[in-house]
Amino acid sequence: MPDPVVALWPVNVGRRLARLEDWIAMVDGRLAEAAKAGADILALPEYACAQWLSVLPEKLAPTAEIPWMAEQAPAMLDALRPLVERHGVALLAGSIPLPAEGGGYANRAVTLLPGGAEMIHDKLTLTPDEQDEACWNLAKGSSVTVFEWKGVRWAVVICLDIEQPAVAVELGKLEPDVILVPSMTTTLAGYHRVFDCAKARAVELFCCVAAVGTIGDCSGFCHGADLNTSGAAAYVPCEKDLGHIGVWGTPLPPRGTAPDEGPLWISPPLPVQTLRAMKRDGTAAVWRGMYDAASLTARSLRA
After folding, report:
1. Fewer CB within 10 Å, N or C, the chain?
2. Contact predicate 14/50, CB 8 Å
3. Does domain 9-282 have CATH number 3.60.110.10?
4. Which residue ranges make up each domain of the chain?
């Protein structure tokens, strides 16, 4: 099994579209670039679909944005599926509002795999705007999934999910090789919350973590996600044999915009086989598995 290569696209959601078909054409072009570079999967950021709102003649009310995007989603996904087959590259289509099982809408990451398999993850940890009944009013997800593809164990969690140690504990039980993190952050602080925690999860879970976020100003047509600052990066455990610092390749630093649809970042092959061998042989510097807190006692004392 060769080590996987990921392509990360910080989509410039502030760039207006003339038609929804233009978004499909951009994804098609990026899949072609990813295939040429030898990537196994192309990952878009959280709410890359917010760019769809730019085709509307007038800005919708905040409460109408999620239902409208959800209405467009089935046709957009139908248009993406043959592109995945044509290019032979899997696609994490960012996250898209779709109907939740218990009613309402979920912020759902959809991963389309060559051959027709599809994997989903509904965001677990919602921002205040996502929970606000006067704004996007989304439903929370309730599960994490690890799926095997090309001999690699993959997981997807969205933005704030990667900041939660409790989510990491559940993921750790499933032993992922690669975690993909689509995100949307408005400020440099938000970018660092997501990306710094992504690096921490790589250390904690002894796996590879790749994160990508939206860039651009879409305040002219979108309430829930207006200003965006992010980049793209891949992280690994901080081991001497992996370059000491836990950063894999040269990340795309955070930015607020781009002159075009946004840059494409191709990872060096992620060292999945090396990490598996280090786990198996016990050759990591200090990591010997996740800490089992079953017998841990927590106390609060007053001096």
Report:
1. C
2. no
3. yes
4. 9-282
